Amino acid sequence: MKAFIIDRYGTKAMVRLGEMPEPELQDDDLLVKIHAASVNPLDLRIRSGKLKLILPYQLPLILGNDLAGVVVKIGAKVRQFKPGDEVYARTDKERIGAFAEFISIRESAVAKKPEKVTMEEAASLPLVGLTAWQVLNENANIQKKQKILIHAGSGGVGSFAIQLAKHMGAIVATTTSTANIAWVKRLGADMVIDYKNEDFRTVLHDYDVVFDTLGGEILEKSLQVLKPGGKLISVAGPPDQHFAENMKLSWGLKLGLRFLSYQVRRKAKKHQVDYSFFFMRPSGDQLREISSLINLGIIHPVVDKVFPFESTKEALAYVENGRAKGKVIIKMI
User: Fold this and answer.
1) How many CB atoms lie within 10 A of CB 256?
2) Which of 109-118, 211-220, 247-256 has the lowest average pLDDT?
3) Pairwise CA distance, residues 270 & 306, whole Å
4) What 8-state DSSP symbol labels residue 114?
5) Where in the chain is the domain with CATH 3.40.50.720?
6) What is the per-residue pLDDT across 229-263, written as a single tens digit (0 to 9) for each?
7) φ, ψ dihedrals at 83, nearest 5°
């Protein structure tokens, strides 16, 4: 089958279109013919090799972490799906490979595609939807009237998280560029900070939760807008020891990650707030919950641009540029 692969870690030049064997089907797997896949910053970090210590893939590697498509074959133990079903999923972290014609994926990671969206829209949802769902419901445990700051509200995760947080009854602030202010307000943001002209620390105070998707300087500045007992949850900051334990990493890596996150954890403690790093997990059950919200019109997919499969390298470059408004999609069919 055709697939976009990397033979070694590095820059965008390392990604090439090539032939790979059709994936093997295990007893609890579905073989899915991929119609559309989504490009995520995670793909760029995997391609560069930044995650190779905690995600040690064998090369050559097919990139791609979420998808929508049609079931063509099922394993002997599969009970919830049949050939012909339209589905969407976030792959297991050990078995990525959505930039291809086919993928073999565990049944428990898959859900039926929401009825009211296209394949391209469905492919935009799994990774960002599950990330927002798990952060807001499990890590943050958002309650009605609580105040949450969601950074980069026009991005893939941010645009979904704004809609979900509003549905949960939260008071939502977000950061974005001047051009996207009106748009993120339509998504549901109560307060919008134009990061080009304002410092969010001078505007926001006593927040319950900050959902950070940017890391770096923004991560540390975010500590200052939280009230005592607040939570700073990041998908872009330094991984912590809790993450290392969940990933069952070696003792040496656990120690290394503890050291990497020491500064931000120390500053969080000084501000009397909690810092945690988040890495989402696949869940077909949660995708079914998300499908209900999509079909009811409570949450809308946000697709910035669709690239043909042959232009996958250009799609990665577009995301790397940091200008995407919502999600960038690769269309196979």
Assistant:
1) 17
2) 247-256
3) 45
4) P
5) 128-277
6) 999 999 999 998 888 888 888 888 888 888 889 99
7) -55, 135
Query: Which CATH number does 2-124+301-331 carry?
Result: 3.90.180.10
End-to-end CA gap in the chain? 14
Going by their DSSP bridges, the two strands 147-150 and 171-176 should be labelled as parallel
| 209 to 4, 130, 260, 261, 271: CA distances (angstroms) | 38, 18, 22, 19, 13
Give the CA-trace dihedral at 305, 170, 150, 129, to 10 degrees. -40
In CATH, what is the architecture of 128-277?
A: 3-Layer(aba) Sandwich (3.40)
- In eight-state DSSP terms, residue 330 is E
| pTM attached to this predicted model | 0.96
What is the total residue count of the chain?
333
CB 119 within 8 A of CB 36: yes
Distance of CA 219 to the CA centre of its chain: 18
306 three-class SS: strand
C-alpha separations of 278 from 134, 171, 237 in Å: 9, 22, 9
Numbered ranges of CATH 3.90.180.10 in the chain: 2-124+301-331
